[in-house]
Write the structure tokens for this entry.
Amino acid sequence: MQVKTLILGAGLTGLSTAYHLEQNGQNDYLLVEKEPVCGGLCASTQSHGFTYDYGGHLLHLHTPEGKKLVKKLLKTNLSRLSRNAFIYTHGVRVPYPFQAHLAALPATVRKECATGLLNRPSFKTVSTFEQWCLAAFGAGIYEHFFKPYHQKIWNCNPAQLTADWCAPFVPVLSAQDIRRSLQKTNRKHYGYNSYFYYPKQGGIGSLAQALAAKISHLQLNSTVTAVDLKRQTAVVNGHVVHYRYLINTLPLKDFTKLLKGQNRLKKQADFLKSVPVTVYHLVIARKVRPFSWLYFPEKDVPFYRVGLQSAFSAHNAPKNSSLFYIELPGLAKNTPALRKKIWTCLVQKGIIKRSDRPVFSAWQSVTHAYVIYDKKRTQVVSFLQNALAQHSCYCGGRYGSWNYSFMESALLEGKSLAQKVK
Ligand SMILES: Cc1cc2nc3c(=O)[nH]c(=O)nc-3n(C[C@H](O)[C@H](O)[C@H](O)COP(=O)(O)OP(=O)(O)OC[C@H]3O[C@@H](n4cnc5c(N)ncnc54)[C@H](O)[C@@H]3O)c2cc1C
């Protein structure tokens, strides 16, 4: 088989690439996806009347272009929702973001945070995430929130991570804002996610489905097992496909392993690190007080974030039930002991009641959920992408570019990838 452009992976990036190729009048392409459904991490599962995503998948639309595309695709199937998020720590519930609501903390913790703020080092010598947090918020806020929370997800010390990724995601406040956060309830909205969008029906997967409906050459159940950059061929379900351009949205580390030869690239890809997460979906037969999501930085709680999927859309769960997504660090095994521990913690934190009963549950895992921004990452990613581009192979998406990005970027990257095809 011969195609001009072969696109690997029908997550949002691959789907958007195919969509934009067609918009550019380029119809000679094939988009291959190993799963029986498209969407990748932006797929939703419908089961027993519930709709759930791979953990929280909310649309943060920050560019006019991204917003326009999503609205064009989802039309009226889109709601705008306000964030209602909290952090459970030190026995209290602190509104998110932590740094803007220090008044909610117990007096001793608040004092440590305030002292740290007044003695912040400068940003001048910042290179690690730890140094960045210290310069932005001081030692108290770092020790009481940023360090334990990030250590829990990334399973490593923030001193080993770079600060390359964090600026768009961690709201830095003015000195005046922070002083205000110490004195009284702060009603100002902060951060990239103070409001967000979500489909009215069909879960987040309806975005991927809307894209899929607009493209012609999507092949599901099709696994890529080998790529020969020199001959410009890929093996898909055992068949050789010849291409002129290869667009890769598979995780960069996994993709490199599929290459014939290319030992230098494989050696570099070995440096790329990521952490998996596990998502436990749980339903109880009662409506709980609505919230968007909650953070749990403390070690003795097995999960780091809990979201209320049924709060994003009335169609995600039947009336009088609550559907939670509970995100756990690493690959957690679905055992009765872990389920009991999760349940006990949810009761202790007052999220569910002892008298509640689970009526449905499901487990999912994401292998490369968060890529690790260590000292090697930037250099290795740019080396690999440049080397691959010399063979007309272009990588994109959260894992193809091995970065920390969102669905809006996946959609926009698909457009840029389509422009590589001449
Ligand atoms: C826990 C979690 C929460 C998130 N929350 C949000 C959020 O709230 N908002 C937001 O905007 N973003 C969020 N994201 C990020 C979002 O999921 C990604 O940015 C986006 O879905 C990435 O799309 P992609 O197409 O680049 O990658 P993917 O979705 O990973 O797509 C890659 C595709 O390649 C396929 N594939 C893999 N190997 C092969 C093979 N050998 N052959 C063929 N196909 C293959 C996969 O099956 C998959 O469909 C979250 C991510 C995680 C992990």
User: Anything to note?
Assistant: The mean pLDDT is 95. Residues 8-14, 32-35, 40-42, 54-60, 223-224, 249-250, 277, 366, 369, 397-399, 405-407, 410 surround flavin-adenine dinucleotide (CB under 6 Å). The longest strand covers residues 358-371.
